[in-house]
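Students often ask why we bother encoding 3D structure as a string. The short answer is that it lets us treat folding as translation between two languages. Here is a chain of 394 residues written in the first language.
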Amino acid sequence: AAGDPAVVVASSRTELVGRPVDDLDGELLLAVKERAESGADAAYRYVGDELLTVTSSLRVRATTRDGTDLANAFGIVQMDLSATASGASNDSFLLTVGGVVAVLLLAGIAIWLLRRHVLLPLQAIRDCVDDPDHATVADPSSVELHRVAMSLQAALAGHNRAEARLADANEQLRELVDAKDRFMASISHELRTPLASIIGFAGYLKDPDLELSEADRAAFVETISREGEDVMDLIEDLLTSAQADIGRLSVTEVNVGLLAQARQVVEGLTGRTGGVEVRGNPVTVSGDPRRVRQIVRNLLTNAARYGGVNVHVDVAICEDMGCLRVVDDGPGIDDADRELIFRAFERARDGVRNAESVGVGLPVARTLARLMGGDLEYRREGGMTVFEFCLLYT
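And here it is in the second language, the structure alphabet:
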């Protein structure tokens, strides 16, 4: 427009009307740019794929400042928008890249927080399931999940302990069932053998048609008596073992002569244990006479079954104890079986001549010895097998 400073009196953008033209550089640029972005009056020139020029125009009508109409003062505001478009494009690109980076950063932070506060405790819980000895959570930021992991680990540890105890109990039960089966087989044999002899010889004696000499009759009677005593001894041991198991076994405490009791037992076992020599001097101990004889009888019977040919009994004082030793020249017992032989229904695996015995004699003997305040031990001494039974000396 020519002439004095002018104002816009007509424009396609009404907010420009009445504004001095020389103050509208920025707003004209914005107006032209908006028209270009809306697709109106914009021209783009390319060379290949490269944008060189973006132009747009805005038609205005101006007057002088005093209001004189300049009827011919029409102009076209034409601007090169290439720099603006490029800047806008760059700004848009940077904004897009910045947004992507921001999203990725936020996603990374979210993943890190999720892993630290959720996944790590859950991983620890899984590790607890796979391996109860695994540590729970190194940095337990998630208190609740950490507590869950700790509780689960404690529960699994308790479960594993319970399983171990159950396995041990099952193994003990299996061993008990096996011992019971062996016991039933052994007790059947132990009772059948003497009872068969008793019934057989008694049949001979009551047969009126069988002519027997007095010597034969005496031998049959002796056999019946001996076998009957074996049955009675076995029954007594079984009853003693049963009473000990239920805590009903009791003993008396009186002065007992060990040497006299040993000789009485040896005399009663004559014919069953062979010739056994009793050595030593009179020794008085505190105990139950009947139980002392039961112990000595079991030791001598054990020596006759499992020991050597030569058996003898020694009675002596050992410090404040009166001791009775049953000694034989048998092969002895392996070290692994030294305590096993004192368990009910068990027998040593080697050096056994009669494997069908019940295996209650030695356990009963030790139980009785300890009940009377003494003990029963096994050892090898100078190539000899020694069972030493001791009670308090009086």
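Translate back mentally: The helical segments are 25-37, 82-130, 143-206, 214-245, 258-268, 289-306, 361-371. Keep this in mind for the problem set.
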